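Thread: Glycoside hydrolase family 1 protein, structure

OP (GT): Posting the sequence first so everyone is looking at the same thing. Length is 484 residues per the record. Can we get the structure tokens written out before standup tomorrow? I want them in the notebook alongside the other entries.
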Amino acid sequence: MQHLINGFPEGFLWGGATAANQFEGGYDEGGKGLSGADVLTGGTHTTSRRITPVLDQNEYYPNHEGIDFYHRYKEDIKLFAEMGFKVFRLSIAWARIFPNGDDKEPNEEGLKFYDDVFKELKKYDIEPLVTISHYEAPFSLTKNYNGWADRRLVDFFYRYCEVIFNRYKDVVKYWLTFNEINCLTTPFGTFMGGAIMPKGNGELNNIQFDDEQLRFQALHHQFIASAKAVKLGHEINKDFKIGCMVAYMCTYPLTCNPDDLLLAQEKDNMNNFLCSDVQVRGEYPGFAKRYFREHNINIIMEENDDKILKEGCVDFYTFSYYSSNCVSAEGNKDKSKGNVSTGLKNPYLKASAWDWQIDPKGLRWSLNNIYNRYRIPLMVVENGLGAVDTIEEDGSINDDYRIEYLREHIKQMKEAIIDGVDLIAYTTWGCIDLVSAGTGEMKKRYGFIYVDKDNEGKGTLNRLKKKSFYWYKKVIATNGEELD
């Protein structure tokens, strides 16, 4: 009989996660070109961000400065090391390496910046986990090709991967091809994930002009690009571990009505498992082919695409998890919000200030659901609570609500490990406060480290340790055993 695991395994990778476009800043420094995120205005949880194809001096673009990691990376990495990080998830800004996306030669100054970042991480024995494309395609690719709607981006992405794989082959082991690749199964992903200019008034979340055919064609191009990158990476360094990244949309039937159950299964399949079936198994699943037939979606494929997908299967599966939603075959129900998608309110759950339902047990369910399907190592690479933090008169920030959220989710990860799930890493989202991808706010904070900046870009950018900073340090030091 095998020994049962009663907790987090030895060598478990604890850490935090970020994205270049949301915290790096330096948007026009070091030879960097404009990314899609650089043309997004600010917003709030009640107003949508807008895309302005030409920068407007009367608009505020929060991603331009982010939290200035570009100049403060040594200070921030030192703070991560103080917490005891074993791994740090970051992304490379594609436009910092290839300013226009289709350039023939890379930007050496951009490559040098990441040389320095990886050197600093190595100084503290922190393993980098690098996302190659995290909602930050060069904006020139949107203007000149309409983003991933054009298959030529596959070759541009391949060239980009070839450069960074060779440059960082001795300092980066873990790679993710596309962040939340399944966002393209929803209208939200049109611009954020697909770099496709949406029709209409430029509002990021405007679904009035959704083009489902275009989204799924763009998604196919990303599947091909990911598969080719995986094969290339393994050829450059056989020790590379290259994974997929999915925004896991945990969906429950609202009632025991069989129609609700079937609808929840359809959402799970199309929103979650379509992408990971292609990236893990190397082929389109039957339910997707049926969906395409019934919705008049015709995916244009080239002759060798099936072979490319089969030869480019990922080594591990990663996902973001923040909340869960319910679905019902009947309309006119109370809606809730979430990461990428929306759903119906669950009467058994509380919600955050941004109306995201808090469901730790849904994480355990999701881990089992994913692992039972694929049987490959898993990482939870985004999980956290966006909230308004207050600095007390003595300078302390008592974010007990964040500690409670993370504690309960870590408990459920431990239960999933005991269930038999091969979970190898956990990186909380926004380990340092950063710009919200969906709303452009700073007010919506996730970090263990407070950054003095507001929604209008005012502030000193000084870093302050929150109560959760010391709590997470203890969690890591005890390998998840001390959670109080």
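GT: Both are above now. Quick notes for whoever picks this up: The two ends are 33 Å apart (CA to CA). Residues 212-236 form the longest helix (25 residues).
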